[in-house]
Amino acid sequence: MKVISVLFTSFSVDAGSLAEEAGFKVGDQIMEVNGKNFENLKHKEAVDFIKSQKHIMVTLKVTFVIESVNF
User: Is pLDDT above 90 for 60?
Assistant: First the structure.
């Protein structure tokens, strides 16, 4: 069995941040940054990589929750 570790946008997205401006939401899955695959990347490695980049292009897997539906 293959175990896959993926970095999520968790807890909160800082108000007024570039992430918020770009539309990041809690629960979004960071799949790739600047062409680097984030599957199986340790959290510290991912954060260090992002911080080392001058500009970033992020591929997200967006998740959402429908809080209520009235029919």
Answer: no
